[in-house]
Amino acid sequence: MTFVLGLTGSIGMGKSTTAQMFAEEGVPVWDADAVVRKLYGAGGAAAAIVAEHYPEVMERGAVSREKLRGLIAGDPTILDHIQKIVHPLVAADRAEFLSNTGEPIVLLDIPLLFETGTDDLCDGIAVVSTSAEEQRERVLGRGEMSEADFELILSRQIPDAEKRARARWVILTQTLDGARQSVKDILAEISKELSDA
Predict the structure, then answer these.
(1) In the predicted model, what is the mean pLDDT of residues 83-107?
(2) Please, which pLDDT band fits residue 77 given cuts at 50, 70 and 90?
(3) How far apart are the first and last CA of the chain?
(4) Could you tell me which residues are beta bridge partners of residue 107?
(5) Are the C-beta atoms of 97 and 53 separated by less than 8 Å?
(6) How distant, in Å, are the alpha carbons of 8, 113, 163, 171 from that of 167?
(7) pTM (whole model) above 0.85
């Protein structure tokens, strides 16, 4: 039996860093964002489909995330359409990952885990979280998006408090050491459950 652990968290909460900590502990990680980047890249399966519908966001055969963000900011319904187009490709990649792993614990790193209903595939869910102030500081500090972009993304994500309530584990990411200890504790707990089963 493989324990499928879902990892999620709102933008700027430290999810990618935490996923890396699970990887360092030997857990195979399926990264939804990385898969989407690959699909959007030149020659990627999603790039061809997006090009048919939204040629203005293409750049050298790949989807420009920046142009796509600008388009979505002008018309948020485009995001729903893009997700409908791309989601089946992402789901197929995830299914392949799950069917090819022989490890006792695997991690699904998915920003919109609850929003897409993918939590149904998980045996347990961990949510990464930090204070709203820290979150805002991290996101805007990267210099990649405006305040308006940040607010738009937040408005499309289930609030942090609700994610925490729906998760089995909450990983606080104020400090790297604290997050790393939580990762170790969660894996120890799951391993014990698997050995007791």
Answers:
(1) 92
(2) confident
(3) 10
(4) 5, 29
(5) no
(6) 9, 11, 6, 10
(7) yes
